[in-house]
Amino acid sequence: MKLYNVVFHEDVAADYNEAYAWYEKQQKGLGEKFLAEINNKIQQIMTNPGAYGIKSKPGYHEAIVIKFPYSIVYRIYKKDRCILITSIHHHKKHPRKKYRK
């Protein structure tokens, strides 16, 4: 099975870095565990992007990260075999901020 390519919205790096820094500040090494969980979930999305359902907004899928209160929000472009990750969204933040174009 050929994996989908992953492309990140330009603001995803800020989501990722902010969360990493916060977790590292809480406990040394916790940021690394967060990154590992995010990367693991992205690998699962690449393998089977349709496994995670569409939630509130049509066309956007949400994969919940099990050990951290985050979701990876993405769109699938089947023709191009591409996944656009629009945000790595903390569950306590305003839900409208997770849907980026």
Helix proportion range: 25-40%
CATH architecture identity: 2-Layer Sandwich
Order of helices and strands: EHHEEE
Shape: globular
- The structure class reads alpha+beta
User: Which range does the strand content fall in?
Assistant: 25-35%
- Radius of gyration, CA atoms, in whole angstroms: 13 Å
Distance between the termini: 28 Å
CATH topology: YaeB-like fold
Low-confidence stretches: none
Mean pLDDT reading: 89
Helix run count: 2
Question: How does this structure look, described?
Answer:
With 101 residues, the protein is an alpha+beta fold. It has a single domain (5-90), classed as RelE-like (YaeB-like fold). Helix content is 33%, strand content 26%. It contains 2 helices and 4 strands, in the order E-H-H-E-E-E. Strand 2 (61-65) and strand 3 form a beta hairpin. Helix 1 packs antiparallel against helix 2. The longest helix is centred in the middle third of the chain and has 18 residues, at 30-47. The chain is globular. The protein starts with a strand and ends in an 11-residue tail after the last strand. The mean pLDDT is 89.
